[in-house]
Amino acid sequence: MEYKIEKAKPFLRWAGGKRWFLKELDKLVDINKYNTYHEPFIGGGSVFFHLKPRKAVISDSNPELINVYNQLKYNVEETVSTLKNYEKSEEFYYKIRSQVFSSKIEEAAKFIFLNQLSFNGIYRVNSRGEYNVPYGRRNSFNFDFDNLFEVNKLLENTEIIKQDFEDTLQKVKEDDFIFLDPPYTVTHNQNGFIHYNQKLFSLEDQYRLSDYIKQIKVRGAFYILTNAAHQVVKEIFSNGDRMYEVDRASIIGGKNAKRGKYSELILTNL
């Protein structure tokens, strides 16, 4: 029987999100054919919310992000109630940004609030680990509180873990499906490595991810990897599986940003 959960949709703005990829995904994946869905770099969860798997393990190394998913799973009413008390203004944005809460519920509400009202939905912290993205002037934005309750329903059969992607291997079994969307280490179609992302996901991490994919296949599981279509990345992940490029438009702006089309690498054993 085909499985479907309500109408939950992504609730976070996420740089590097994969909404553009969903048309390609539908050509490749019937989620009902697989046992457990895994997403080790959950981020905003565009693919997770699109596929709506009946059983899933989602994870990330970002503890604040994982706390948000956990609070929406276990304390959605309290999280929504806290959010409803927040004022959509620049002054209140900076007030909340500067606060550190002892309550995990309040920290989750803070994360969602800052994400929705920040500049371009960027997640960025300073050297002290403090979120430092400026206000994005989205006073007219309205929170979709009903969707957060739909998210809660989808998360009922989802295991949520804060961990490095390599540690997720212990839960991968035969006929599982894994979607991999790591932070990109290199620029799209450009000549060299970018420096700002080396701490977030280094070249060495890309090699670790390549080994991780080998272990997925040993277990008889299936995967899709998205990555920057850069020659170095192609060499790292050249393993005999299907590899192709898809053009997409750049959607993240900035003072020196160049908007245009970029190629994304897709690798899969489906």
TrEMBL record:
Its EC number is 2.1.1.72. GO terms for molecular function: methyltransferase activity. GO terms for biological process: methylation. It holds the Pfam family MethyltransfD12. Keywords: Methyltransferase, S-adenosyl-L-methionine, Transferase. Signal peptide: none annotated. It is an enzyme of class 2 (transferase). Coiled coil: none annotated. It catalyses: a 2'-deoxyadenosine in DNA + S-adenosyl-L-methionine = an N(6)-methyl-2'-deoxyadenosine in DNA + S-adenosyl-L-homocysteine + H(+). This is Site-specific DNA-methyltransferase (adenine-specific). Belongs to the N(4)/N(6)-methyltransferase family.
